[in-house]
From TrEMBL:
Protein name: dTDP-4-dehydrorhamnose 3,5-epimerase
Keywords from the named record: Isomerase
Function description: Catalyzes the epimerization of the C3' and C5'positions of dTDP-6-deoxy-D-xylo-4-hexulose, forming dTDP-6-deoxy-L-lyxo-4-hexulose.
Catalytic residues identified in the record: H63 (proton acceptor), Y132 (proton donor)
Binding partners and assembly: Homodimer.
Family per similarity comment: Belongs to the dTDP-4-dehydrorhamnose 3,5-epimerase family.
Highest taxon above the source species: Bacteria
Source organism: Streptomyces alkaliterrae
GO molecular-function term, one example from the UniProt record: dTDP-4-dehydrorhamnose 3,5-epimerase activity
Pfam families: dTDP_sugar_isom
Pathway of action: Carbohydrate biosynthesis; dTDP-L-rhamnose biosynthesis
Entry's Gene Ontology BP terms: dTDP-rhamnose biosynthetic process; polysaccharide biosynthetic process
EC numbers for this chain: 5.1.3.13
Reaction equation(s) it catalyzes: dTDP-4-dehydro-6-deoxy-alpha-D-glucose = dTDP-4-dehydro-beta-L-rhamnose
């Protein structure tokens, strides 16, 4: 497994596995504590695993947690997604920058999203399963959502959004969300 720093988002990493393929399919390591340690991440910090399944065109996000934030490892375990990270850490050299990636079951690449960054994705296939490994138990009182189509961010979502949660659909723009968080 190889770790690659994401230049557009300080502290973000892509973890690229080495799948072993044969006529049966493939086997791939998707988590390696030693590789995380090699880039300064504590593998024991992750306390919760979750999975979501989305139909093609579903857009989830942009989500983050207030307070201490939440770091996460994100991987598309089935299908393909357009994944986005927005750096909302005021002291970061990449503050307000965003980066996008295509994550897929073919590569099994895992994205590390640092605490204080917003995250969202759009399903490009029918369906797309996304696995998350999170470093804090979820507390709904800390949930923050930012409009996916905020003009200040100008994220180039690849498909029209076919479905969104009411929370995502009614999310405030970046400036309002940052003000609500005291930033």
């Amino acid at each position: 497994m190889k770790a690659t720093e994401v230049p557009a988002i300080a502290g973000a990493f892509l973890f690229e596995p080495t799948p072993h393929t044969d006529p049966r399919g493939f086997f791939s390591r998707t988590f390696d504590a030693d590789v995380l340690r090699s880039v300064g991440l504590d593998p024991n910090a992750f306390v919760q695993d979750s999975v979501s399944r989305s139909a093609r065109g579903v857009l989830r996000g942009l989500h983050l947690r207030s307070g201490a934030g939440e770091a996460k490892l994100v991987r598309c375990s089935y299908g393909r997604i357009f994944d986005v990270v927005v750096d909302l850490r005021p002291d970061s050299p990449t503050y307000r920058a965003h980066a996008s990636f295509e994550l897929s079951d073919r590569t099994q690449v895992t994205l590390y999203v640092p605490a204080g960054c917003a995250h969202g994705f759009q399903a490009l296939t029918e369906p797309a399963d996304v696995s998350y490994r999170i470093d804090r138990p979820h507390d709904p009182a800390e949930d923050v959502t930012i409009a996916h189509d905020d003009p200040e961010l100008a994220i180039p979502w690849p498909l029209p959004a076919t479905s969104m949660s009411p929370r995502d659909r009614e999310a405030p723009g970046l400036a309002v969300a940052l003000k609500q968080m005291g930033r």
